[in-house]
Amino acid sequence: AKHLLGIEYLAPDEITTLLDLAETYVELNRSKTKHSDVLAGLTQINMFFENSTRTQASFELAGKRLGADVMNMAMQASSTKKGETLIDTALTLNAMHPDLLVVRHPHSGAVNLLAEKVNCAVLNAGDGFHEHPTQALLDALTIRRAKGRLHRLSIAICGDIAHSRVARSNLILLGKMENRVRLVGPTTLMPSQISEFGVEVFDDMREGLADVDVVMMLRLQKERMDGGFIPSEREYYHRYGLDAEKLSYAKPDAIVMHPGPMNRGVEIDGTIADDINRSVIQEQVEMGVAVRMAAMDLLARNLRNRSAA
Ligand code: CP
């Protein structure tokens, strides 16, 4: 593929290939050198039109560790603030001959649109409610390492599903790899087209978590609830916040995940998040760098193959 725009465009064998390559980058990142030259001579531009800590930092580190020339556009200080459109901004950067463009944007579909206008490879770092493919890939690698496989697992994705591109990308990926996915949360925070996904839906945490292998918690995304129903944090924590009592319904070796940023005491109890026997939240961050290295490596190989042809 030319771009990484969403999990919906990946075949199961492409997911496996990317995760296998990411494993080699986990080793590289744990080594003393942490460096390779597979992106040497290539230019990577990161454009984040929305805030980010993990995705931005790990894409930047990934590019630098692979030897790319990495530029972070400060979008808050860019000419988009003077009214320049996304497309004009993209065309302007395209004229500087980047090879890899990493884009996060608040509007669903914005990254796909941008990919049609530029010559380089585009990686979606999260677009609106649509997709966050590298998050689902890093979650998949974390699950595969913790559970020894990425199929026939029972996985509960819990909380604010309606506003979550992370949930959407994970649902698609975990479904493609033949896992049983459950969505758990208040009906007000479930997407309207829930039947399309062919998954079980629960509004009770204890029923939803019963005997699952993986508990994936999501942030309550209040900034995306303009005009809609916003639950009180206290009530939400009581009914849907993951604490030891609710977690006891999952399998005894179930792992706890959260893509971050995390609201402690809202969707998750801080002691669960910090429990190294259950929580793999820090491993998710570590896998994020490796998965982004693998994604950019594979896209760069395709770029080179195309220019050699
Ligand atoms: N999980 C995730 O996308 O985090 P950031 O918003 O900090 O990048």
Q: Which cofactors or ions or other ligands sit in this model? A: phosphoric acid mono(formamide)ester
Helix content range: 40-55%
**pLDDT under 50 segments (min length 5)?**
none
The sequence of SSEs as H and E is HEHEHEHEHEHEEHEHHEHH
* Class based on secondary structure composition and strand pairing: alpha/beta
SS field, number of helical segments: 11
What is Rg?
19 Å
Shape: globular
Number of strands: 9
User: How would you state the average pLDDT, rounded?
Assistant: 94
For the sheet with most strands, the description reads: 5 strands, parallel
Strand arrangement, major sheet: 7-6-5-8-9
The termini sit apart by 15 Å
Tell me the β content: 5-15%
Report on this structure.
It contains eleven helices and nine strands. It is α/β, with parallel strands linked by helices and 309 residues long. It has a five-stranded parallel beta sheet. A four-stranded parallel beta sheet has the order 2-1-3-4, with helices on both faces. α6 links the parallel β5 and β6. The mean pLDDT is 94. The structure holds phosphoric acid mono(formamide)ester (CP). Phosphoric acid mono(formamide)ester binds next to α2. GO terms for molecular function: amino acid binding; aspartate carbamoyltransferase activity. One of its GO terms (biological process) is 'de novo' pyrimidine nucleobase biosynthetic process.
